[in-house]
Amino acid sequence: MTSHGVDHQQDYPMIITVEIENYAVKKVLVDQGSSVDILYWATYQKLQLSDTAMAPYDKPIYGFSGEKVSTRGYIDLHTVVRDGAQTKTIPICFLVVDAPTSYNVLLGRPSLNTLGAVVSTPHLTMKFPSPSGDILTIHGDQRLARECYRASLRPQLPILQTNHIERPPGSEIALFGDDLDPRMGRDVRLEPVEETTPLESLMVAPSNSVLGSNLNSATS
Questions:
Q1: I need a surface site. Which of 14, 131, 136, 161 has the fewest CB within 10 A?
Q2: Model confidence pLDDT, tens digit, residues 5-41
């Protein structure tokens, strides 16, 4: 194990935290095999985003094994990736997907390329340049990766809507309900659903296109 606690005996996925709409969103899967960025419908609702902010899109997409996944639309959101006090903000066109999963968001190749990210899954580390030219480093959360993996082994059970969306410190926006927490690092968080895709992909991709190995309706 490294100083960051990475267990090299396990092949865990890269799970990170990003900030969307002033919320710290955990259980974000970094998937270099996906051609789209996905925001799951349960996460969309937890973020209290208006339905009118989403452009309609209802054509189904298909997972790795051919299963059909329902979509609701797409939305452009500025997403913040943080390394301590340094951040990088990028616009992401998310495809809003309505399917059960143990993740809140899936970051695919479009957002990773925009970020300029280099991902090392053996080290559960992602590096990318900051606006000032510094190299920022994000470490994957192995504990949350284990939680997501264990949840994926129980596809017959309903998704447990635990809290994995939190309001970062210093936010002036009020909180509503138990699903939102203003304190970073608290263990009780939200746990929503799926992924997103850019507008260009939505307009040209055939309805039976395969999006990536991690897009399936049984990831919870």
A1: 131
A2: 556 666 889 999 999 999 999 999 999 999 999 999 9
Q: Does 8 map to a domain?
A: no
Domain count within the chain = 1
**What is the distance between the alpha carbons of residues 220 and 190, in angstroms, rounded to a whole number?**
14
Would strands 118-120 and 125-129 be described as parallel, antiparallel, or unpaired? antiparallel
Q: Which domain holds residue 145?
A: 14-204
Pairing mode of beta strands 105-107, 23-30: parallel
183 with 189: CB under 8 angstroms? no
Amino acid at 1: M
Whether 212 maps to a domain, the answer reads no
The model's pLDDT over 154-177, given as tens digits with 9 standing for 90+, comes to 754 444 444 466 665 555 433 333
Beta-strand relationship, 23-30 and 86-98: unpaired
Is the distance from CB of 72 to CB of 100 less than 8 angstroms? no
Domain CATH code at residue 113: 2.40.70.10
Encoded tokens for 78: 């500025």
Q: Give the chain's largest Cα–Cα span.
A: 47
User: Considering the domain boundaries, does residue 29 fall inside one?
Assistant: yes
Within 10 Å of residue 152's Cβ, how many Cβ atoms?
A: 16
Is residue 134 in a domain? yes
C-beta neighbour count of 174 within 10 angstroms: 8
